[in-house]
What we know:
The complex is a heterodimer.
Chain A: H1 2-9, H2 11-33, H3 65-101, H4 103-117, H5 121-132, H6 136-163, H7 166-173, H8 178-214, H9 226-235, H10 242-270
Helix pairs in contact in A: 2-3, 2-10, 3-4, 3-6, 3-8, 3-9, 3-10, 4-6, 5-6, 6-8, 7-8, 8-9, 8-10, 9-10
Chain B: H1 2-29, H2 43-52, H3 59-71, H4 86-120, H5 126-139, H6 143-157, H7 169-199, H8 202-209, H9 214-251, H10 258-266, H11 270-298, H12 300-305
Helix pairs in contact in B: 1-11, 4-5, 4-7, 4-9, 4-11, 5-7, 6-7, 6-9, 7-9, 8-9, 9-11, 10-11
Amino acid sequence: MSALRRLLRSPVALLALTLLALIVGGAVLGPEISVWDSEAMDFAAMQAAPSAQHWFGTDLVGRDQFVRTMLGARVSLSIALLAISVSLLIGVPWGMLAALLGGRWDQLMMRFVDVLYGLPVILIIILLVVIFGRNQYLLFAALGAFFWLDIARIVRGQTLRLRDAPFIQAARGMGAGRAYTLWRHVLPNVAGPVIVYTTLAIPGVILAESFISFLGLGIQEPDTSWGVLVSDGAQTLESAPWLIIYPGLCLGATIWSFNTLGDRLRDMLDNPDNRRLN
Amino acid sequence: MGAYLARRALYSLLTLLVVISAVFFLLRLAPGGPFDGERQLPPEIEANLNAAYHLDAPLYEQYLRYLSDLLRGDMGPSLTQKDFSVAELITSGLPTSLALGAGALVTALCLGLAIGTYCGRRTGTLIDGALMSLTNVTLAIPAIVSGPVLILVFAISLSWLPSGGSGSAAHLLLPIVALALPYIAAIARLIRGSVAEVGGEPFVITAQSKGIGEARILWRHIMPGAAIPLVSFLGPAAAGLLTGSVVVEQIFDLPGIGRYFVQAALNRDYTLVMGVAVVYAAAILTFNLLVDLTYGVLDPRIRVRQ
């Protein structure tokens, strides 16, 4: 708990948390409480500038841009969360196993990570999406399947450091089994760095999704995501700049917030006085 | 050092082979083929076309044929753009893509190093705080947003620069800025951290107390150590710039090779997709190899350990 309180003491981190809370709150509640439906076209206000009725303006066919931006937030954020979960599910066991098995297995498993690291990931994801259809579940699975590499490396490093730590030795000496030690002692101590790097990895996933949707390969109409909205907005730069500005701002604010929080958390973790987080 | 590099080169070749195989088999898994057009071709003609491009042979045979052709430098004909070989299409787009990527990389390196070093020697000052907040913001603006906004401001409102197309250096300016923006910030933050860290080491303070000038301290004492994290960042950065360039080429309507990739994948132009993927992968791997080489030069421990 002290970690959270210390985090809240930093004004920048507080701002980041507030922004995230606003965006998540807007994503969850916005489309529900708004008087506009995401598909409803307001023929009286087509391509209208932001106003009291339409906070973010309307698009070419008169759909409320606030509702669509918030629906986009739902899609972009949930894809990011799901992709990150997939990458944690692969990366954490992979890194732990490599560290615990050691020797030749460790070598082999980490070389595999190295080889994947050299791949032009987005190109392969583009290929997957083009080939297997524009399915958003496939998209997050594919993203997750490539974003676990960093996590595996970090978990391996941390586990290696812990493996010979006195308290682990003590636990083993007192007769604790391998699995029990892993679950009770190693995993909680790996959690700190994993949380930090997960926070820093989320913007990468959000960006990847938005790039793919921008190219017209990701989320399809009538569903929407920030990438789709920015891509549509780029078509009407001159006549309706608000169509790119608001989704762009939401995208930027989210990435900024995750980066800022991740940086703060990492600083706290790196600072020996602040080890309580770990 | 030699053995270390040889092993690295071997891994690079292995990775290249993985890329080629992955792309090759993924493409063939896809439903549809390069000759499915608007109009259904008569079966005899389609069979002839398939035979002409050896698409009727067993898959492993096609794979081996592709590999052996590639080894001889032949990337085959484009399957959808008749009369053009993949090599011709790539050669026509590569200069633009290279200029964009290299321009963005050099811009990011120069500005990032300058800002990072400046702030790293003045941590905690007002200007450091201001510059770091600014980099934190530019880090959060992806090219898909900054690109159109740059067009809106500099091409549409101010009419200073062209909004798209190619032909002159001015056409490349906005794309390079859009692509480089997050990387300037990332490099500046990285360098600031490591310059501040190395700058606090006892040997730097000793050098200062001996009266050595700031410029010499920076270059001789701080930079060799402080640059190591930057070097390891360059590998992922190159891959990221390349990804970004696919999008940036689209935004600014640049005739590079990134555009081919998406279109060719949609059209199942097997050979063109393979060609672009091979060029991209080879570029990233060569770059990573150079990074490893620099790493070894900068950090004596790596030379010794290997």
